Amino acid sequence: MTIPIGALRRQKAATEPVTDRRSLEDPRAELLELERQGELIVQKIDREAVTVSTKYGREKRIQKSHLWHHKSCGQCGHIPGYSTSIFWVMRHLGYDYHDPSDQTSCTAWNYYASATSNAAAQAAVAVRNFAAAYESGYFPLIHCGTSYGHYKEVREELIGHPELRAQVRDIMAKLGKPLVLPEEIVHYSEWFHALRDEIAAKQVRDMSGIVVTVHPACHYYKLVEGDAIYDPDIYGGQRTAVVTGLAQALGAEVRNYSTWFDCCGFGFRHILVQRDFTRSFATLRKIEVMKEEANPDVVLTHDTGCVTTLDKSQFAARAHERNVGLAVLSEAQFAALAMGAHPYRVCQLHWHSADYRPLLEKLGIDWEKAWEEFQSDLRRLESGEKRYLDWDDVDA
Amino acid sequence: MIETAARHDETDAHYKVPDVAGYAEVPHEEKVRLFEQVKGDFRFGDYLYGCYECGICVAACPSAKFYDFSPRRVAQAAAREDVDLIYQQMQEDIWECSQCFSCLRCPRGNNPGGIITIMREVAVNNGLASAKQALVGYSRIIYKIMSSGTQVSPDMLRSDAFPDWGPETADVADNLDLWRRALPAETMHTTSTGWSVADKTLVELYLIWLETGALDMIADVDSGLHSILLELMEERLEEEGIQL
Question: For chain A, which residues make up each domain, given as ranges?
Answer without folding.
Answer: 23-188, 203-370, 371-396
